[in-house]
Every structure is written in C-alpha cells, then in structure tokens.
Write a structure and sequence with these properties.
This protein is of the alpha+beta class. The protein has one domain. Helices cover 18% and strands 37% of the residues. The chain has three helices and 13 strands, in the order E-E-E-E-E-E-E-E-E-H-E-E-E-E-H-H. The protein has helices at 106-117, 173-184, 194-207; strands at residues 6-11, 14-17, 26-33, 46-52, 65-68, 76-81, 84-85, 87-91, 95-101, 122-129, 134-139, 146-152, 155-164. Strands 2-3-9-8 form a four-stranded antiparallel β-sheet. Strands 1-10-13 form a three-stranded antiparallel β-sheet, with no helix packed on it. The two termini are 18 Å apart.
Length: 214
C-alpha cells in the first residue's frame, strides 16, 4: 500500500537572513527539528508525541522538493531536483533546513514582507514514512493517561518545506493508523483501547489536514 503523505509544522522556524549591505531576500527556515518531542498530537486521555531522529532525511535530500507558500502549488517559491536548483536543503545538528532567494513574484514579495513584519514565523513540511522507518513505544504511570511515542528514523519521501501563515493543527490521523497496525502485532497490548483510538482519530479528522502535493 502506498504511504500516505503527512504534514507537520514548527513554530519560530523561518527568517530572512542578512547578507552584506542592502535588504536581503534570503529565506531560511527549519522544516524539522531533531530529537525534540512534538506537542501532544493526541488527547488528554491518550497522549501521542513524535520525535524525529538525526539521519531521518539522509536518503531524501536528492528528492524533487519544492518550497511553497502555504503548501499551495500555485505559489511556488523555489525547487530542488537531484540536489540542484533554486532551493537548497540540508541537515545539521538542529534539523532539516531549507534556504532560497525569494523570487520577484507576488508570492515571493508577499512572503518577504510578511516575515519581516513577523506575520509568518512557522515552517511546515510534507513527507511519507515507510513502515520500517518508524518505531513505537507505549507507557502508562498509575491511573494517568497512556503515552505513546512514535520515533521517525527514516523518511521515505520529502515533498516540500514551506513557510506557512496559519497552519492547520498537525495531522495525526496517518500516524494513528500506523499505530493501530503496530498494536495488532503486540501479543499483550497495554495501551489505549479501540474506543480511545477511535476518539483520537475523530479528533484528528476535525483538527488535522492532509496535504497531497501533485
């Protein structure tokens, strides 16, 4: 079965980089941060967090990757194909970064002005994870909520790294389906019940948003 595209957003992850004299149009952001627990993607009764490991993007830096404004293919800002093009992407100790010169287009000019004003300060990326590229763990202390951690070790496809103005709540529905498959393989499951998973899936359907670039 073809993996489903997922989207995640990060706060405070895009800026205009100063380069010499004059006004810069160099946009740089972090689309993902390593070894940092995400916000709770579940509910109060069933906590669900994700962590991205260093090396998760090593095999996809040569993908055909776009920088889009708000994930909208009508507003393309830059593109990297086989490591070449107007978009630069790479990884460092912090995470997955992207950088490009904002184009002299309406979208590019609006982006630069919005970042300078502080109206845009988030980045988001779209990706898929192969089944073998993730690990799951569950824990529960006393009568407290079940906590499930998904560790993303290998991304199988990177679609875009995008500055976003007002991202939808991180979509957890795809990851929840993977969790359900994981739990089917557990001989003695200790985590959330089917009813709890259904509750969080319904919650994610309301607040989540799948993005499917062409």
């Amino acid at each position: 079965m073809k993996p489903t595209i997922e989207t995640r957003a990060f706060q405070g992850a895009v800026e205009i980089r100063a380069k010499g004299e004059g006004e810069s149009r160099t946009v740089r952001g972090y689309a993902a941060v390593f070894n940092k627990a995400s916000q709770n993607l579940g509910s109060d009764q069933y906590q669900f967090i994700e962590i991205i490991e260093p090396g998760a993007f090593d095999d996809v830096l040569g993908d055909d990757v776009r920088a889009l404004l708000n994930h909208d293919p009508n507003f393309i800002l830059a593109r990297s194909k086989s490591g070449e093009g107007t978009l630069q992407i790479g990884t460092d100790a912090t995470g997955l970064w992207y950088e490009f010169e904002a184009p002299n287009t309406q979208a590019g000019n609006d982006l630069v002005e919005s970042i300078r004003r502080g109206d845009i300060d988030q980045s988001s990326f779209s990706f898929t994870v192969a089944e073998s590229g993730q690990r799951w763990g569950e824990s529960k202390v006393g009568d407290g909520p079940t906590s499930t951690k998904r560790t993303i070790a290998k991304v199988s496809r990177l679609y875009d790294g995008s500055p976003v103005t007002y991202p939808a709540y991180p979509d957890a529905s795809v990851a929840l389906r993977s969790l359900q498959e994981f739990r089917k393989q557990e001989p003695e499951p200790q985590g959330p019940t089917t009813e709890q998973l259904s509750e969080v899936s319904d919650w994610a359907a309301v607040f989540g948003s799948n993005t499917s670039p062409s």
